[in-house]
Write a structure and sequence with these properties.
Elements lengths: L18 H16 L6 H8 L7 E4 L2 E4 H15 L15 H21 L2 H24 L3 H28 L14 E2 L2 E2 L7 H9 L2 H9 L4 H18 L2 H15 L7 H18 L19 H13 L1 H4 L20 H34 L4 H21 L6 H39 L7
Antiparallel strand pairs: 1-2, 3-4
Helix pairs in contact: 1-2, 1-3, 2-6, 3-5, 4-5, 4-14, 5-16, 6-9, 7-9, 7-10, 8-9, 8-15, 10-15, 14-15, 14-16, 15-16
Length: about 450
């Protein structure tokens, strides 16, 4: 049965704020406001991923989670920022990817409100807008250059170490280290402990699994090898302790994405080959090609059949949701209210146009990475960074088929998009700088005409 008020956020009606969280929030807010811009990403991420999502402040009937307050703090600093010709609010300007994210988030809010036509839907939609559009803009603002990109990945490594240690301990003690903050003890499925940590078993496992490519890139940065190693160990521990197929699929997709590095100049052929394979399978299989989802069970207790039925019902009921989404999807079958597929979430909450815009976030990102990689072809250091970002993006796509991206996973996804914008802009800048140097050297070698 669908939990009551799930569509409008659910949660408690009063303030929930533990003392350690209150102290940590004050420290994080001060650091976000006073640290140099490229350093403020560290306290922001550390606070965001170590504070439970249910910690909230209720003032005058307005509910604000601690995570939303963190985002609003960054947005406040961004609003007060006065850019210069050398340092803009967003690196590279407001690019095509930024525009797609803005359109997607605004359209999702509009469609959600049109579905319910209630004040509560508008309130919930505005809260979601803070988390989606606000979270994305916060990440874009706090990651202006390569140094901030490096700090972002190091912060993720620290988070994985903290969460990994706590989740591994749950495997032996069956107690959540963060129980003093109200976190539940780990559940047991088919005799296996699924460690929770702060983020929960499935969310924590996916969070860690998609980060493997970035930690491997960080290893190539000599001054960050210790952080990279710690991040790899912590992330692997989180995936193992989560005991979830989606976590392992994200982890495996990260490795597979990196494994295509030798074929980076033949990716067009690889993509079309993949499309041809899927079409061929669809023609020869007894069921649709998306029924392959129900075959995925890496832990012996996965609900892969439910994930297959979500996709199948979404496709079969296209006429219900294509215009503005659909709010009665729970009637499609048993437990269909549990939308553990982010692409299905985009479709049912926003309709076809919203789904297309969400998919465009990935196509624009891959397109920018591919174009930038070609421009820096031969510069293996630059190419490897871009490739690792692409492998992380691919792992997120795979994870999308097994989980809905709530606020914490979205906030781990947005820094990736911000890093892609920074890396692709810097690649373009390096190419332009190289062309200018070559043109200057050529003009210097040509003697000026007599009498000039």
């Amino acid at each position: 049965m669908e939990p009551k008020n799930l569509r409008f956020g659910g949660g408690a009606g009063d303030t929930i704020l533990h003392l350690p969280i209150a102290v940590g929030m004050l420290i994080a807010i001060v650091l976000i406001l006073i640290l140099p811009r490229r350093k403020a990403i560290t306290p922001f991420l550390l606070a965001f991923f170590t504070i439970p999502v249910y910690e909230q402040l209720v003032l005058g009937g307005v509910h604000l989670t601690m995570l939303q307050i963190l985002i609003l703090t960054v947005l406040g600093r961004m609003a007060a920022f006065r850019g210069t010709s050398s340092e803009k609010r967003f690196t590279g300007g407001f690019n095509a990817l930024d525009k797609v994210v803005v359109l997607w988030s605004l359209l999702e809010l509009t469609m959600f409100c049109l579905q319910f036509m209630e004040t509560q839907a508008l309130i919930r939609g505005l809260a979601g807008l803070i988390e989606s559009l606000g979270g994305y803009l916060a990440a874009r603002f706090l990651i202006p250059d390569r140094e901030a990109l490096r700090r972002t990945i190091r912060a993720m490594a620290i988070i994985c170490v903290i969460q990994g240690a706590s989740m591994v301990s749950e495997q032996f003690t069956h107690q959540n280290v963060f129980s003093f903050l109200g976190k539940w003890p780990p559940p047991i499925r088919d005799g296996h402990v699924r460690s929770e940590g702060i983020m929960g078993s499935l969310y924590g496992g996916v969070f860690a699994g998609v980060l493997i490519p970035l930690f491997l890139w960080l290893w190539t940065e000599r001054k960050s090898r210790m952080a990279a190693c710690a991040g790899l160990v912590g992330a692997t521990a989180m995936v193992w302790a989560s005991h979830a197929s989606t976590s392992w699929m994200a982890y495996g997709a990260s490795i597979v994405g990196l494994g295509f590095w030798p074929l980076r100049r033949q990716m067009r052929l690889v993509r079309w080959g993949l499309v041809a394979m899927l079409v061929g399978l669809h023609l020869v299989m007894h069921g649709p090609v998306w029924s392959l989802i129900e075959k995925v069970d890496l832990t012996g207790g996965s609900s892969s059949y439910h994930r297959y039925m979500l996709v199948d019902n979404c496709i079969r009921h296209f006429g219900d949701w294509w215009l503005i989404g659909y709010k009665y999807y729970g009637s499609w079958g048993f437990d269909m209210w549990d939308l553990c597929n982010q692409f299905v979430v985009a479709a049912l909450t926003g309709g076809l146009v919203t789904l297309v815009l969400y998919i465009m976030i990935f196509t624009r990102s891959f397109g920018a990475i591919g174009t930038a990689r070609k421009k820096v072809s031969g510069n293996r250091r630059q190419e490897w960074l871009l490739w690792c970002l692409g492998a992380d993006l691919f792992a997120n796509i795979v994870a999308h088929f097994g989980i809905n991206y709530m606020v914490e996973l979205m906030m781990s996804f947005f820094p990736l998009l911000a890093c892609i914008s920074v890396a692709t802009f810097e690649a373009k800048w390096h190419v332009l700088a190289r062309v200018e140097i070559l043109s200057d050297s050529d003009s210097a070698s040509v003697p000026e005409p007599v009498g000039a």
